């Protein structure tokens, strides 16, 4: 029985990956004495994370020893041309070995032998004892594919070790259509530029695979060389000697004698590890690794009780609730399970005997658990959630109503406040708040994509759910400690938590879709697409076949650059930018762009919209509160924020959102909010003066840039240029970007930028101050002290550093504007409730808030919304307990109509 899983690690590969993952961002960690440790830190973190998340019996690491191996004797220029290893990395190799010694992890390095050969030989030893061992090899080197067998798989990291591609015999066959033992033959033919292995000149991967599928090996190819004809035969004959040598060089040895190798159960030395981490000042890893070691050496078992019905005697004052879903769209997803943890223990609700909890058939399977409903609706029973919108929506679809006011803690929201750059997952945010507890991603338990299922071993499922709710419970206090210590509790309680609850209401309210209008537009656009297809085929009739597919980039590339012989400015690209540069050369280009636009309109917003309409004739989008680093919302399934209002054809889609008789839509947004925020936080005197006197900011900016007097006229082009500057400053204006936007030279663009900063000097002073703060702290802050980590500021790469500087200016502006809008929405909602109005806030699209309003409430809603939006900045300072003075007035524009098309 194969019951012992062994991890073999390509040490050089993992160290290089660890180094460049952090070095790219400029994040070179050093001790106080100047010893670089970024590669060591990442190596230790990645390896311990992998061991923590998998049940390995043993782990062995292999290293190259020296730069010359037996392969150099046969091919002197083997691996020639590789970049020199950075000195900062070279010094860290011995420190990694020191860690492995401290941790009691075996590693091997042999003179004249590569790490590949050590791993190959160990895997062969373990394969021979095939009744006992399963082997996984962690490497970035695809040469290792030749070691795959029924007991051995290759793990290729995509990002860190949290996202691994697993290759066994089936996966390799799917990727390259060959067997593991054919990998050296493949390299013998196609070569390997990374190792300077030549192969057969002129035959690439596809040709090599075709030959191997027919003849199996390189030797058999040459034994049957007379069957092969034309240029391929000549290339093979001319390169025979180097091909056979290339195969030999690419073949991993599996017969190296490995002295003192034996398999033993992992037993990491925690005391020595802590001593090592303290020595190299990796203090943030001490607690994390201590807990990982305990888990690796002996997995902690979470005790839990499985209940068929909720028992109110188990309730506590504070309770962590996990609702695990099968799919990310919580409006439709089946529920995998429910777990609740509190001071009385961990409880998994097995409401259904088997299968997933189907949201649409729950009533057929089981009646509502009245005690569970009472618990969920009790305002005195405090609840903790991860993503309260997801959990409460799923429960509502099952028939349970949760008292939103009883939810006081949401790990997702605190994790986002702590570090908005993290990918929004339970394990990421848990790790940032409570690093000593690791909970794997759901995909590692229930599978990915279409293979994801709740029908797994009940013990595994229940144990995972209990561990997750237990971790959620434990994370609350350190999360609150963080918020209090950084003076961020007001931001969490008064903005993010309240806003999440408001978004739940908005998502539940949904947006009504006029199915007749949708069908009409769908049919019209379909006819338009067909007409364009016929016109395009008529224009290029002599250059394409009858089955020409306009939507195929490959066929379009062939048409444009080979058949029509149009200039190829973008290396074969057929994207929008490439087509626009060709539009004046051939009338078919404009038709192709139109076809592409209408096709997207059809597939995304018309025909594609149908699947999102629920039985109530509404779409219920999902607002992502923790996705963007700027603090802005995004919308998915469907994306309501992506319907263009600048293109008339696309804007027409907004007609499908129509109102019922006696109701209307009202839309409100801030005028130039980002520029007003910039004027406030810089503070920029000239901008503040322009806004206070209610003059046009773009016209006045043009006067300053072009040095035009008060009585002189500012041309349309001058104002347009100034507008590009004003918004360009916010979004990271660069001389290169400006030269493209204005179609001027880079030196001219630089002069314009100098003139702009001379016109608004406080912006440059503010930017320099922000950049300096960002370099010292690693982050910049919004008005509400929301942090944006900008690691690019420390990069040694000039372009990356320049991006960081632009981001440093952009983040406080975007983030502050987003928080102003959030608070305005919260306050408006509270006023609607206080006044017992029927009106509903139903959507937020960028800076625009859309309401669904009965005609009789039209005027009172207008009054409430404008007052709350205009006073949002001063109220923001109040709730954050800041004594800041409001320097700029916020202006609000509005519109109303019977459908969204009439808005604005």
Automatic annotation (TrEMBL):
SUPFAM superfamilies with a match to the protein in the record: 5' to 3' exonuclease, C-terminal subdomain (SSF47807), DNA/RNA polymerases (SSF56672), PIN domain-like (SSF88723), Ribonuclease H-like (SSF53098)
**A GO molecular-function annotation:** DNA-directed DNA polymerase activity
E.C. code: 2.7.7.7
The UniProt entry's GO biological process terms, in alphabetical order, are: DNA-templated DNA replication; double-strand break repair
Give the UniProt keywords, A-Z: Coiled coil, DNA damage, DNA repair, DNA replication, DNA-binding, DNA-directed DNA polymerase, Exonuclease, Hydrolase, Nuclease, Nucleotidyltransferase, Transferase
Q: Where is the DNA-directed DNA polymerase family A palm domain?
A: 650-857
Q: EC class of this enzyme?
A: transferase
Pfam families registered for this protein in UniProt = 5_3_exonuc, 5_3_exonuc_N, DNA_pol_A, DNA_polI_exo1
- What role is this protein assigned? 5'-3' exonuclease acting preferentially on double-stranded DNA.
Q: Which family does this protein fall into? A: Belongs to the DNA polymerase type-A family.
- This chain belongs to the protein called DNA polymerase I
């Amino acid at each position: 029985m194969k019951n012992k899983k062994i991890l073999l690690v390509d040490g050089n590969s993992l160290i290089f990956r660890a180094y460049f993952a952090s070095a790219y961002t400029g994040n070179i960690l050093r001790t106080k004495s100047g010893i670089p440790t970024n590669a060591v830190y990442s190596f230790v973190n990645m390896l311990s994370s992998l061991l923590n998340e998998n049940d390995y019996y043993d782990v062995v690491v292999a290293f190259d020893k020296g730069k010359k191996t037996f392969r150099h004797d046969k091919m002197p220029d083997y691996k020639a041309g590789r970049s020199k290893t950075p000195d900062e990395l070279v010094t860290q190799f011995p420190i990694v070995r020191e860690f492995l010694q401290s941790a009691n992890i075996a590693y091997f390095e042999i003179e004249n032998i590569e790490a590949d050969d050590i791993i190959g030989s160990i895997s062969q030893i373990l394969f021979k004892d095939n009744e006992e061992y399963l082997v996984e090899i962690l490497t970035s080197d695809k040469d290792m594919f030749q070691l795959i067998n029924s007991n051995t798989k290759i793990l290729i990291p995509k990002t860190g070790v949290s996202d691994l591609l697993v290759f066994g015999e089936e996966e390799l066959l799917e990727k390259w259509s060959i067997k593991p033992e054919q990998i050296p033959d493949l390299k013998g033919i196609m070569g390997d530029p990374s190792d300077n292995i030549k192969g057969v000149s002129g035959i690439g991967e596809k040709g090599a695979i075709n030959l191997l599928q027919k003849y199996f090996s390189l030797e058999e190819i040459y034994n049957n060389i007379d069957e092969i004809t034309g240029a391929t035969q000549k290339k093979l004959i001319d390169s025979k000697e180097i091909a056979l040598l290339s195969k030999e060089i690419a073949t991993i040895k599996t017969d190296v004698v490995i002295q003192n190798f034996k398999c033993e159960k992992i037993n990491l030395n925690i005391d020595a590890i802590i001593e090592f981490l303290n020595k190299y000042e990796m203090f943030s890893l001490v607690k994390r690794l201590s807990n990982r070691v305990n888990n690796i050496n002996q997995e902690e078992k979470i005790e839990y009780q499985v209940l068929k019905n909720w028992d109110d005697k188990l309730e506590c004052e504070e309770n962590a609730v996990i609702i695990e879903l099968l799919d990310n769209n919580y409006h439709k997803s089946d529920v995998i399970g429910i777990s609740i943890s509190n001071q009385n223990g961990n409880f998994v609700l097995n409401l259904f005997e088997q299968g997933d909890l189907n949201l649409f058939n729950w009533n057929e399977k089981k009646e509502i658990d009245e005690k569970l409903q009472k618990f969920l609706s009790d305002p005195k029973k405090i609840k903790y959630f991860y993503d309260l919108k997801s959990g409460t929506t799923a429960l509502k679809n099952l028939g349970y109503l949760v008292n939103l006011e009883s939810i006081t803690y949401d790990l997702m929201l605190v994790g986002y406040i702590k570090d908005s750059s993290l990918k929004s997952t339970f394990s990421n945010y848990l790790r940032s708040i409570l690093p000593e507890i690791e909970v794997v991603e759901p995909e590692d338990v229930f599978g990915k994509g279409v293979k994801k299922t709740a029908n797994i071993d009940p013990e595994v499922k229940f144990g995972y759910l209990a561990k997750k709710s237990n971790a959620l419970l434990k994370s609350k206090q350190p999360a609150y400690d963080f918020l209090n210590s950084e003076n961020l509790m007001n931001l969490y309680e008064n903005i993010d938590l309240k806003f999440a609850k408001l978004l739940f209401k908005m998502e539940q309210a949904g947006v009504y879709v006029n199915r007749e209008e949708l069908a009409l537009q769908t049919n019209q656009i379909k006819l338009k697409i067909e007409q364009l297809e016929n016109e395009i085929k008529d224009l290029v009739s002599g250059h394409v076949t009858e089955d020409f597919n306009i939507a195929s980039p490959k066929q379009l590339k062939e048409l444009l650059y080979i058949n029509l012989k149009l200039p190829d400015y973008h290396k074969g690209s057929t994207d929008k930018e490439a087509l626009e540069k060709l539009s004046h050369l051939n009338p078919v280009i404009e038709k192709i762009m139109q076809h592409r636009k209408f096709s997207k309109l059809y597939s995304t917003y018309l025909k594609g919209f149908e699947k999102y309409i629920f039985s109530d004739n509404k779409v219920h989008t999902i607002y992502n509160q923790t996705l963007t680093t700027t603090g802005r919302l995004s919308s998915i399934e469907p994306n309501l924020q992506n319907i263009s209002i600048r293109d008339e054809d696309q804007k027409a889609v907004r007609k499908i959102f129509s109102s019922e008789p006696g109701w209307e839509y009202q839309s409100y947004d801030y005028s130039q909010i980002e520029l007003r925020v910039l004027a406030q936080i810089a503070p920029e005197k000239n901008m503040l003066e322009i806004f206070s006197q209610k003059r046009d900011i773009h016209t006045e900016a043009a006067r300053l840039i072009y040095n035009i007097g008060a009585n002189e006229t500012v041309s349309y082009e001058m104002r347009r240029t100034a507008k590009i500057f004003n918004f360009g400053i916010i979004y990271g204006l660069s001389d290169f970007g400006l030269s493209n936007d204005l179609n001027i030279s880079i030196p001219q663009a630089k002069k314009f930028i100098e003139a702009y900063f001379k016109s608004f000097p406080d912006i440059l002073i503010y930017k320099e101050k922000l950049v300096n703060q960002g370099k010292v702290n690693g982050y910049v802050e919004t008005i509400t002290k929301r942090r944006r980590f900008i690691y690019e500021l420390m990069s040694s790469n000039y372009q990356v550093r320049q991006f960081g500087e632009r981001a440093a200016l952009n983040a406080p502006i975007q983030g502050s504007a987003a928080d102003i809008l959030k608070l305005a929405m919260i306050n408006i909602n509270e006023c609607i409730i206080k006044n017992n109005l029927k009106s509903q806030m139903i959507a937020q699209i960028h800076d625009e808030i859309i309401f669904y309003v009965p005609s009789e409430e039209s005027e009172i809603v207008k009054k409430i919304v404008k007052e709350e939006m205009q006073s949002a900045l001063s109220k923001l300072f109040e709730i954050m307990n800041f004594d800041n003075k409001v320097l700029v007035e916020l202006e609000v524009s509005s519109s109303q109509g019977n459908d969204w098309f009439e808005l604005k």
